[in-house]
Amino acid sequence: MEREEVMTRLKKGFWQPEEDLILKKYVETHGEGNWTKVSLRSGLMRGGKSCRLRWKNYLRPNIKRGTMSEDEKDLIIRLHKLLGNRWSLIAGRLPGRTDNEVKNYWNTHLNKTCSPRKASDHRPKINHNLCPQAPMRDKDSQSTSEGLKGKDDDCEGSCQADPRDVHRFYFDIESPALPAYNALFFDEDEPFLPILDSIVWFESFGSTGEEM
DNA sequence: AACGCTATCAACCGCTCTCGC
DNA sequence: AGCGAGAGCGGTTGATAGCGT
């Protein structure tokens, strides 16, 4: 009853500073999660989804705002090649950045320069049959800033990777990118890890991230 | 100064996934 | 096993700021 009433009077549009404050206080007191309860009990006339989004994208501690650094930009490009439009996964590798921000940044800044086709068109279709034996690379060549060199050229070329081109896909993976963020790659559950051959993954980056 | 166009980004929508019953 | 609710994700929309004419 209470719930239905609230749902019918939900507020939309931009968040006001007072609303931010209420949400922030509520989450700090009660913790994240249960977003429907948050919307019901905090007094905010917002849907649970809206509360969650606002918290996640703006109110959460350690959110980094402002322009993307060159490293971040490069990482986004490379991760997008690897993961496609898996914005939450990409954002998970960029400390302080949110999926929404990464997505917006890609669509406004990178998509036009890096991909002639719609971003959604080259989301890689990953499956177990893909390249069971990925090309190995000398571990010495990994995790260096070398990978960042000539990124614009790289962008021109390999951002256009055809998802059908399985071998190309894995060659992109094993290119030595991710200098500063390499260690972040394995620190949390990865829903796609079971999909990717774990050996390929390990060989590609030469790190399990456990030795952070 | 006024208008139109473009770029940017916050927020919403709809779908899928996960989990508890 | 099946169902429903809640959570999460990616795509899209809409407001508005900035810029050019």
Automatic annotation (TrEMBL):
Q: What is its main location?
A: nucleus
Q: A GO CC term?
A: nucleus
Query: What are the alphabetically sorted keywords of the record?
Result: DNA-binding, Nucleus, Repeat, Transcription, Transcription regulation
Q: Name one GO molecular function term.
A: DNA binding
**The keyword Metal-binding is annotated on this UniProt entry:** no
Family annotation (InterPro entries)? Homeodomain-like_sf, Myb_dom, SANT/Myb
Per UniProt, residues of the Myb-like domain are: 7-59, 60-110
Tell me the compartments it is located in: Nucleus
Q: Where is this region: Disordered?
A: 115-157
Q: Which residues form the HTH myb-type domain?
A: 7-59, 60-114
What protein am I looking at?
Answer: Uncharacterized protein
Q: What is the source species? A: Escallonia rubra
Lineage, highest ranks first: Eukaryota, Viridiplantae, Streptophyta, Embryophyta, Tracheophyta
